[in-house]
Amino acid sequence: MLHIGCHLSSSKGFLAMGRQALELGADTFQFFTRNPRGSRAKDLDSADAAALMALMAEHRFAPIIAHAPYTLNLCGAEEKNRAFARETMADDLRRLEHLPGQYYNFHPGSHVGQGTEAGIAFIAQGLNDILHPDQATTVLLETMAGKGSEVGGRFEELREILDRVELSDKMGVCLDTCHVSDAGYDIIGDLDGVLTEFDRCIGLERLKAIHLNDSKNLTGARKDRHERIGHGCIGLEALSRVVRHPALRGLPFCLETPNELPGYGEEIALLRRQAEL
Ligand code: FE
Ligand code: FE
Ligand code: ZN
User: Fold this and answer.
1) Is 246 a residue whose pLDDT tops 90?
2) Whether pLDDT at 38 is above 70
3) Predicted TM-score of the model (pTM)
4) Annotated catalytic, 59?
5) All residues with CB under 5 Å from ion ligand 2
6) Is 134 a catalytic residue?
């Protein structure tokens, strides 16, 4: 059984996203915890969160993914930027306790010239500040395209962050197919090899979710421009091998392709058919 969904707008609340997902044939989804650029979050409606949890249980959803604003940077050059990222993520995690057992995905950060080592150290310190032993949310590091000074374009970098996090059982990884291809991993020609490398560096048991995207650019381009499924450089065949791969079975797959809702519905149906082949 393939668990698949897409990124949804959270503007109408939690239950509305769950219903929207069902209409699209999805059994998971992703949403931004707040405006991706801004910082203000609406007051959390705990009854709405409980209603979503009930709907997800009834329809056997896979875990859903709350995505942190992508402008947060745990390894920014200035302490005030790092502190803002820590405070915002801590606030998100407090809110997510109303949706127990789900995932909180974030971009590790950009070292902005301080170097990868310094970036990794700040990211791990930030996580050690934020994580709590009793939290019900698993925090996911997203694999990045390696654009600019992004940390997390190499599996080794994610491994180093995980090694330095004390509450490491609260941590996992989300693999983005566009990002890993852009970062230079050959998921088109050698998916088995890439997953073997992931297992060697990080451990496949850490892999909790997949962002399923085609890419506008060739492997190694380090661009991070998503494309619709089958319209980019990765292509439908290679992405179908991802949804069919036995090592990934059971994980939530989430589309972040440039689509309106009907386009997402079509991609979900297409990939469900591909998963059955
Ligand atoms: Fe992301
Ligand atoms: Fe992604
Ligand atoms: Zn991306």
Assistant:
1) yes
2) no
3) 0.97
4) no
5) 176, 211
6) no
Q: Is 132 a catalytic residue?
A: no
Identify whether 256 is a catalytic site residue: yes
Tell me what percent of the residues of the chain surpass a pLDDT of 90: 96
Ligand closest to CA 106: 1
pLDDT over 90 at 43, yes or no:
no
Mean pLDDT, the chain, as a whole number?
97
Distance set, CA 126 to CA 74, 80, 103, 168 (Å): 6, 13, 18, 13
b/e for 121-143, b at 16 or more Cβ within 10 A? bbbbbbbeebbeeebebbbbbbb
The answer to whether residue 157 scores a pLDDT higher than 90 is yes
Give the three-state DSSP class for 224.
coil
Domains of the chain as residue ranges with CATH = 3-275 (3.20.20.150)
In the reported structure, the alpha carbon of residue 223 is separated from the centroid of ligand 2 by a whole-number distance in angstroms of 13
Residue type, 265: G
Catalytic residue among 3, 95, 179, 206: 179
| Identified catalytic residue from 7, 34, 206, 211 | 211
